[in-house]
Design goal:
One of its GO terms (biological process) is bile acid metabolic process. The chain is α/β, with parallel strands linked by helices and 253 residues long. The protein has nine helices and seven strands; from the N terminus they run βαβαβαβαβααβαααβ. A seven-stranded parallel beta sheet has the order 3-2-1-4-5-6-7, with helices on both faces. Strand 1, helix 1 and strand 2 form a beta-alpha-beta unit. It is globular, with a radius of gyration of 17 Å.
């Protein structure tokens, strides 16, 4: 068996980020045309687009603010004009902020996490799922986090946003399943990225001691699961929260 996304178009938000760029390459390698969303890193988006075209895939790089519905509407219009319908949506973008204790965390950080974790996914669903319903096929994939189960100190704003996202995805899975659309979440652990390789920061003995597989995962391992969930191999999986963290957190029954 092989993952074959030929004839599909995949959108990845936050596609120029450390994980997003690997997901874009992986989806394209599996045969998908791609939408490279970016917030501010236009140069990286252009570089990725050229790389994708070199694979023989179609693509478009589009700037948008994922917390602003009108901005996402403009992105969708451009995508539809250049590539047509989007079959796979990967919600990866999130606002970055400085973590601290609940007593010290500014209110705007909770608001930014709600906007980028919850409302981004509401907007993406409202904009792209109707086309999927019309096609009787589609994939909504959200990038969650192991932090949602850890609830460690200083994680509160991030955890609150991602747990809100989890609720949206679970309900959406029940609402659109009858149309052949699957809705799933991938929850990475602390992942090795291109930046880690460049800075030689791939290892953390303290963290790795907590992981049953005794190592950190890689960006490619996360992207592999995203590609699997985007494919027909995962056609009967929906409503799932899938940790990809070497067993560091384990959802219970």
């Amino acid at each position: 068996m092989a993952i074959d996304l030929s004839g599909k178009t995949a959108l990845v938000t936050g596609a120029t980020g450390q994980l997003g760029r690997v997901m874009i390459r992986t989806l394209a390698n599996a045969g998908a045309d791609v939408v490279i969303h970016f917030q501010s890193n236009e140069a990286k988006a252009a570089e990725l687009l050229e790389e994708i075209k070199g694979m023989g895939r179609r693509g478009v790089a589009v700037q948008a603010d994922v917390t602003d519905r009108s901005s996402l509407e403009a992105m969708k219009r451009k995508v539809n004009e250049q590539l047509g319908r989007v079959d796979i949506v990967v919600a990866n973008a999130v606002v970055q902020y400085q973590w601290t204790s609940i007593l010290e965390q500014p209110a705007e950080d909770y608001e930014s996490q709600f906007e980028s974790c919850v409302m981004q996914n509401v907007y993406l669903a409202q904009l792209f799922v109707p086309d999927m319903i019309g096609n009787k096929h589609g994939r909504m994939i959200g990038i969650n986090t192991e932090c949602s189960m850890q609830n460690f100190k200083t994680q509160s704003a991030y955890v609150a946003g991602k747990r809100g996202m989890d609720g949206v995805y679970r309900v959406l899975a029940k609402e659109v399943g009858e149309h052949g659309i699957t809705v799933n979440q991938v929850a990475p652990g602390w992942t090795i990225s291109e930046r880690d390789r460049e800075n030689q920061t791939e290892h953390s003995e303290e963290y790795e001691r907590t992981v049953p597989l005794a190592r950190r995962g890689t960006d490619q391992e996360i992207a592999n699961v995203v590609a699997f969930l985007a494919s027909d191999l995962a056609s009967f999986i929906t409503g799932a929260y899938v940790p990809v963290n070497g067993g560091n957190v384990m959802p219970a029954i």
